[in-house]
Amino acid sequence: MPIIPNLNPNDLVIFCVVAKEKSLSSAAEKLSLTQPAVTYHIQSLEKFTRVKLIEFKRHQATLTPHGQELLKYAEGIYERLVDAERYIKFVRESNLRVGIASVYDMLLTPLLQELFDERDHEVKLMVKSGNAFEMVQDVLDSTLDLAIVPKFDYPGEKLNYVRVSNPEEIVCFAAAQQPLPDAPLGWGDLYKYPLVSGPETSVIRRVIFDKYREIGLEEPVLAAEVGTVEWCKTLVENGRGLSFTLLKDIEKQVEEGRFKLVPLKESLSITAESVTRMDIDNPIIQKFIMLVKKAFNYTS
């Protein structure tokens, strides 16, 4: 039956440092603790062992015979703890949890497939796709290491934002057979047409609605609210209304003659950015961000 030790490993670690430094003040400085805190741990260890382990005289720490014997075991435990922490750090930095806003799925999926070469085979990648606000919240909650999302004023502090793309134009599109004027439309003109939109958490939807409010109009009439770009395209193709997205999402269908772009008098654009926690420093994250910039052909 396994024995569960009652000994506090922190007491042993601090005991090792005091023995090595031969000074209470020097050990406290190395450990970033106060001298009373270091003294407490040593006394706790001595209380547990019921013997004197260290003599303190004139700011000098000297091991007793019992202390010298215990140090042989404590040093081995200390080294194993350091090795364990080093391994845990390696595991944490070799697992990457990425969130990608659905608007960037098509662009970044090929990148994810070719992300790591043979040298990086130990890196495990977990990818989650969804709305940008959910991705940012997951980074804040530490359930994701980073997220790639459109730039927006997201709630939450302690986050680091890095731009990873040049501005991308938000295009308006309609079914090929949808009757529309040939001349470019203003936002007041667009307001007359029903809109197929993403959910309230869609950044593109918020950008469009903010534009309507900016010119003094209420939110447009929604023909449908859908959760994915694919559903949006299906409804637009069936003549349910106009919609907005990034050109890359509909480029193929435009070439096939299924959709047509609606020329606008005033265009809007968004940029992509990576979101990470300020207290996380992981070289794998930095490598991923560099690859994302390359995928976007970003020039700073």
Please report the first level of CATH classification, the CATH class of the largest domain.
Answer: Alpha Beta
**Contiguous helical run count:** 11
Radius of gyration, rounded?
Answer: 30 Å
Query: What's the CATH H-level superfamily name of the largest domain?
Result: Periplasmic binding protein-like II
Please trace the helix and strand order, writing H or E for each element.
Answer: HHHEEHEHEHEEEHEHEHEHEEEH
Largest β-sheet summary:
5 strands, mixed
Mean pLDDT: 88
Which spans of ≥5 residues are poorly predicted at pLDDT below 50? none
Task: Provide a quick synopsis of the model.
The protein has 300 residues and is α/β, with parallel strands linked by helices. It is 43% helix and 21% strand. It folds into three domains: 9-91, Winged helix-like DNA-binding domain superfamily/Winged helix DNA-binding domain (Arc Repressor Mutant, subunit A, Orthogonal Bundle); 94-166 and 271-295, Periplasmic binding protein-like II (D-Maltodextrin-Binding Protein, domain 2, 3-Layer(aba) Sandwich), CATH 3.40.190; 168-270, Periplasmic binding protein-like II (D-Maltodextrin-Binding Protein, domain 2), CATH 3.40.190.10.
Give a written overview of the molecule.
- The protein is of the alpha/beta class and 300 residues long.
- It has three domains: 9-91, Winged helix-like DNA-binding domain superfamily/Winged helix DNA-binding domain (Arc Repressor Mutant, subunit A), CATH 1.10.10; 94-166 and 271-295, Periplasmic binding protein-like II (D-Maltodextrin-Binding Protein, domain 2, 3-Layer(aba) Sandwich), CATH 3.40.190; 168-270, Periplasmic binding protein-like II (D-Maltodextrin-Binding Protein, domain 2).
- Helix content is 43%, strand content 21%.
- It has helices at 9-21, 24-31, 35-49, 65-93, 105-113, 132-140, 187-190, 203-214, 229-237, 247-255, 283-295; strands at 54-57, 60-63, 95-101, 124-130, 146-150, 159-163, 168-175, 195-197, 222-225, 243-246, 259-262, 268-270, 272-277.
- The strands form four sheets. It has a five-stranded mixed beta sheet with strand order 4-3-5-13-6, with helices on both faces.
- Strand 3, helix 5 and strand 4 (124-130) form a beta-alpha-beta unit.
- It is elongated.
- The N and C termini lie far apart (61 Å).
- 27% of the residues are buried.
